[in-house]
Amino acid sequence: MSATIADLGARLLALAERRLPALTRLRKAEALPIRLDRRRIYVLPTGFGISFAILLFVMLLGALNYKNNPALLLTCLFGAAGGASLFAGFRALNGLILKRVVAEECHAGTPLTVHLAFASETRSRSSLRIRVGQIESAFALPAGIDSDIALAIPTLQRGWLRAGRLRLSTDFPLGLFRIWSWLNPDVEFLVYPAIETPLPPLPEGSGRMDERALAGAGDELSGLREYRISDPPRLIAWKASARHDSLLVRDAERRGGDSLAFDYAMIGRLDHEARIRRLTAWVLAAEAAQQSYTLKLPDAEFGPGVGPTQRHACLRALALMPHA
């Protein structure tokens, strides 16, 4: 039954998109900031609101039939309360400003956390809901303070992802009316490729210098340092650590000539997307180890280097590679 209702709702929305683009606000993305006003705020009674109106009508008929003034007064009070709730709900959206939409880094297959910055100006606003697709979050905005609302949007594939349309709504204060507006910010977010799991071993013999020569033949502990929490387990020198009171790791930072090469063309027996996932895993592993690396793609080469700039350039290039 719920699937049938959802399918009917999707068909009605598709019809509205074709016939009433000004109403649904879906045809054209909007530049930030976006301010809500009376021309783009819509109101419909909820199921509870319709039941309440029927109840008031029955109470009105009974009060008039029996000429019962107290019952008539009670009916009018309830009706006035319902009408006042409409304007209170409208004020909760009117004048609201969406200032910024930013997102955290994300890899395909994991939720993209989007942060929405709203400004409520001079008054507080309660019982608001923001919805993207099937994801909905409830929040309230204090007066005069910009608030950050986080939404987790599922991601299926790498590349650019539009935030899409946002439905901002409220049924404040009595739940009699559904008041809503559409927001369609003109923003896109880059979703990095998925990461191959389990983590594949880094390639050997790709421009790497011999560790023993770098460590020095006469000093067993040369090129070793104390373990840090960010160090990957593969760098732990187990034999040297067994003879000391603490864990020791091979110091990748001191091996200036040691550089890895991640070459798309050299990965065999894997399809296009699997190669991209493996290269992504290697980039992140090299960054975690602070190991200099070069990424070679069919139409570009990045590095050698290590750090946020190198990592972002490599992940961006992998995310934007043509699909097979």
Annotation, overall tally of beta strands: 16
> How many distinct folded domains?
2
Q: From the alpha carbons, calculate the radius of gyration and give it in angstroms.
A: 30 Å
Give the distance, in angstroms, between the N- and C-terminal Cα atoms. 39 Å
Major β-sheet strand ordering = 2-10-9-5-6
Which structural category fits the helices and strands? alpha+beta
Helix content: 25-40%
Uncertain parts? 207-222, 253-257
Number of helices: 8
Order of helices and strands: HHEEHHEEEEEEEEEHEHEEHEEH
The biggest sheet, with number of strands, parallel, antiparallel or mixed sense and barrel status, is: 5 strands, antiparallel
Assign an overall shape: elongated
Can you give the mean pLDDT?
Answer: 84
Strand content: 25-35%
Question: What does this 3D model show about the protein?
Answer:
By secondary structure, the chain is an alpha+beta fold. It folds into two domains: 164 residues, no CATH class; 109 residues, no CATH class. The strands form five sheets. It has a five-stranded antiparallel β-sheet with strand order 2-10-9-5-6. A hairpin with a 2-residue loop joins strand 15 and strand 16. The chain is elongated. About 6% of the residues have low confidence.
